[in-house]
Design a protein that fits this description.
heterotrimer, A mainly alpha (about 325), B alpha+beta (about 150), C alpha+beta (about 375), A: about 325 residues, globular, C: about 375 residues, alpha+beta, three-stranded antiparallel β-sheet, 9 strands, about 15% strand
Chain lengths: ~325, ~150, ~375
Amino acid sequence: MEILNSILPELIRIVICAVCGAVIVFGNALVMGYAERKLAGHFMLRPGPMEVGFHGIIQLVVDGLKLMGKQLVVPAKADKPLFMLAPILAFAPVFIPLLVIPFSDKLQGFDLDVGLLLILAVASINVLAILIGGWGSNNKYSLFGAFRSVAQNVAYEIPMLISLLAIVFMTNTFSLREIAAAQSPVWFVILQPLAFLIYIVAMVAETNRAPFDLPEAESELTAGFHTEYSGMSFSLFVLGEYANMFIVCSIATVFFLGGDSGIPLPYFEYSGAIWFLAKVYALMFFLVWIRWTYPRTRFDQLMNFCWKYLIPFSLVNLLITVVMVKLI
Amino acid sequence: MKSYFSELFTGGWSLILGLKVTIKSLFSPIVTVQYPREKLEITPNYRGHIDLVKDPENGSHKCITCGSCMRECPSDCIVIEGEKREGVKGKVLTVFTLDFTKCSLCGACVEACPTDALDYSNEYELAGEARSDFYFDILKRVEERK
Amino acid sequence: MNVDVLEDERHHRFVLNMGPQHPSTHGVLRVLLELEGEYAMSLQPVLGYGHRCHEKIAEYKPAKSFMPNTARMDYLGALIYNHGYAQLLEKATGIEAPQRAEYIRVITSELNRIQSHLLWYGAYLLDLGAFTPIMYSFDDREHILDILEDVTGSRLTYCYYRVGGVCRDIDDKFIAGTRQFIDRLRSRFPMYEDLVNGNVILQNRLNGIGDLTPQTCARYGVTGPLLRGTGVAYDMRRAEPYSVYPEFDFEIPTETKGDCMASFLVRFREMEQSLRIIEQALDRLPEGPIMAAKVPKKLKIPAGDYNSSVEAPRGELSYYLVADGSDTPYRLKVRTPSYSNLSVVSEQCAGMLLSDVVSAMGSLDLVIPEIDR
């Protein structure tokens, strides 16, 4: 009984965190799905979804219901266990990073000392899911998409890590809350503009979004790794993608844009969370904006850009940071 | 080494120019029309399927059943039949059908008509579920328009 | 066609069946790719999914009645296909279209050419993964379609030209609308320049991809913007002037490199030249009839063979007619540009990355119904 009493608060905390995580993942997918389609429409001088509800506001809910109602088609020659595992593997891990993201001073699941490492480690599982999905569906286009995705994500994790490492050297911690708190006078985007730029590029590539959406390049590979997926298994990939977007944008907010710092709104204790979400969605808007502006890069150019520009620049940046930190 | 950096800057600048174009259109008015809700006015010159012209003099049509349109039609989609009737000069039109599934809207029939009895209709919302929806009885159409 | 098992030295290759339902083949074209990694070592286009026997149909009905069929071969250059055919029958029967009709033909044909290029522009960028430009170019294209709809009565598969003229006269509304459109499109070019042409990603995707030389083009019969991209200023409007084109002052845009970027720029600059032609034609539009005075109802074609060539948006279009003295052609052969242009891909794209195959095939500006006519 005593043991139970001691772990009960922790258990309740875990349950609440899990529920909040689910709300964030699904809510974010709804908001982003709608915003992306609406913004894409207006970028293209058309209104976007307009039919279901006022200005199509419940379009995504209806789409979700449609996807749930659809048959899960498994190709005859697919590797069925792998085929079914991949969407789950793409979707399930996205909850874990949400636990350590500090939405505001008080709104944080767990403040781990190794928060950043946890996020990066879990985010890498996504690559595995894509590889399994592409391999398991036994489709040539899917296979190409999977191969591209693995090469791309592995390559772009390096500059992403190194650019974040510069911040870690400055703050001397891996804990996200402390990093966010360390930017009280000036945001790190001003001290580390190069790292910010590198992180933004790597972030777009990590989430497989245009102009780096090679794994699903639909004009070349029809739909890339999720060619064969239908119904809910397809939507799990999409949910996972939007959740990953949210996570990488949150990291950018924590590391470069001052986390929850901002002008405190009157009479509201959690105004930090509002600032945090505003920053995250501003970054998401940027992702949508570039997606609907640029053509897709070619695979070798993508890798060239990583190895020729991003990694050298991030290494130089890291070196300068280390020297500066040592000197000051 | 110099080109390494200049490429980066010219490339980056071109990307920023592109972003400027799209953000401008984000705040421009939309140019599309929500079709079934709003409709654009179609030009009176639009060439839909053919129709018999209403003759204001006799309240009917001007067709003399000469069959020029039937002969001229490249896809044989017009069928005309007429019959002799007591007390009427020439033939009287009894059947005028158009198989719109075959029609290519070339306008040969309208141009061939010696009495200008044919004209293009302005109908463009012609989706249908069966082939038989497109076998138009032109004679019936002109009579119904009374 | 079935895919054979690959022989010994090729057995490690991966056969990818691109099409007939692939987003970047723009129709029912099928391409068999043999891949090593992402490199396409050999390509084989497979045709015939949309064959409608147009040439055979021509042998079974009066020559005049084939006009609507010409528009259906190349749905993007319908008026230019009309033009070639009307010209062919005029040559064969000795009927001459009045000056005003020829001017109207030039104006509408050039509008049609711009329309085709704008669609290609958008669709090509869609192939390259940019979604937005197609909406902007469709916005411009819609204005052309409205102008043409007002005079021809249709939006895509026009049947506007007749043997001996055109079937409807243009009015002041058309002229005003066209002038307005010219100004509009000119003011849009800088926007396209910023959004697309100068974009570093696009430059990297197109520069040095799919090199063609004038010799290769000559071997395969490649014409149009692809040939002009290799530096050969071969354009039927200049090489064998027809209609009233000699009266206008315009340039034939050429590039020298022969890659995808070259034909991209040639097409883009051709739109500007077409605008110039339209402007001049509108300024000098003569008054007069729009149809030749005497066009017999039954058009008897004297026995013999006749040829007529025009410059379609995708290259040289030729009609070759053998007549036996009746009103029905004995044989009609259509030389469509996309067919010859497509045949070069197996040489042009061998050894390319899969993404480059898509950009090289897009730069051919294929219209599949014109290949499978």
